[in-house]
Amino acid sequence: MRAFLGSMTGRVFGTLLLGILLTAALTQLLADAERARVIDEFRDLHNLDRAEQLIMATEIVPESARKAYLDVANRPGMQLVDVDIRAAALAPANSEFTQSLAARMGKGYVMRSLAARPAACATAREQPVVFGLLRMKWRGTCESLSVRLRDGDELMLSVLPPRSATSPQRTDFTWTISIFLVSVAFLAYLVARMTTRPLKQLAQAAKDLGNDINHPPLDLTGADEIRQASAAFNAMQARIRQYIFQRTQMLAAITHDLQTPLTRMRLRLEKVSDSELQERLIGDLSAMQAMVREGLDLARSMDTSEAMQMLDLDSLLDSVCADAAESCQRVTLSGHAGMALLGRPMDLRRCLVNLIDNAVKYGQAAKVNVDRINGAARIRIRDAGPGIPGAELARVFDPFYRVETSRSRESGGTGLGLTIARNIAEQHGGSITLANHPEGGLEATLMLPEYYPGK
What we know:
By secondary structure, this protein is of the alpha+beta class. The protein has three domains: 2-159, no CATH class; 212-305, Signal transduction histidine kinase, dimerisation/phosphotransfer (DHp) domain (Helix Hairpins, Orthogonal Bundle); 307-449, Histidine kinase-like ATPase, C-terminal domain (Heat Shock Protein 90), CATH 3.30.565. It has helices at residues 2-6, 8-60, 66-73, 96-105, 119-126, 174-211, 224-269, 275-301, 313-326, 345-363, 417-427; strands spanning 78-81, 110-113, 128-131, 134-137, 143-148, 154-159, 309-312, 331-335, 340-343, 366-373, 376-383, 431-436, 442-449. Helix 8 (275-301) packs parallel to helix 11, helix 9 crosses helix 10 and helix 10 (345-363) runs antiparallel to helix 11 (417-427).
């Protein structure tokens, strides 16, 4: 779940879902507020109608029977009583309800708001009114006013809260809300996936390009912007492939063409009479030939034309270590990976041979251990040498770079072995790291995924 929310799809999905839910909640609140306003207006109009009808009907009844009539006619929410209100205090100004009722009744009727309000008003205002998501205090009309009829009789009209200031029993919208949330989440996920899929394809294409420059180009499908980005990516891949091909061809041609004059020089050196000078020149020439050979190997390590095939990693390691042991190298193998690997056999063999040769050259022996961790093969090759200073660990992968203490004719090498090994590992989606072992010696760790990610 954390990985999903951390991805672009999860973030777009969360943003869309949250935005839709907030919009829906805001819309519902505005609708509830409008509903509350309409209900209040309707109640006020209804109270005006009831007050008008009650007053006019009371006026028709003889004065002697009005009290009995009002006992029967009064209903909850509105009371018209015949009491002496001459001593009651009047409000400073008539309320809006009193003014509207006076306008309806016309001339001959006198309406005045009283200062004292019914006790039920305070109780009703303490109870919140619920309208869907909106929870608010009741603000309907609740007051007392004096009504003087045309015959001079003065009554008190009390507009009271309805039987329940809250909304009626609400319908259970659990299933409706659940279906709405599921629909919104499904729609948000589809939009997020449709939006981020081209980005994932471009990211995967960039990863495949780093692992295999000859990976098939992207299909030009989707929206105009996506097709333009895919076309630009394919053009970039073609240019990079051309640059790498030209560089590889140039390096291979140079190193190959050097073989012939170097061979002629070696033949001519055989005729030098001074044995000491001859030995020095032949040693220099041998170093140059070794550098040319590794230059060819470096050029080949950048070429990914070898076909990919399934191979057994344990069998490959056993074969490489057995060949090294037959060459009188002190190499031991332990552990078991138990996994198949999709890769280029000759390239992987060259990578392992370079790492083992490097360990034997500088540490006199190589201990190879293989195991499996997090779905990938881990091959650790440890030597018994002095190790490498920490500042030099990253630089030894640079072409032609050698640690100062190793620059001898016997063990210095050309500085291309680790570069070639790293190129091959990265072409297979793996990596190589170096570290000084706590118990002494240098340990090279080769990580190879179970399947080549570019295929």
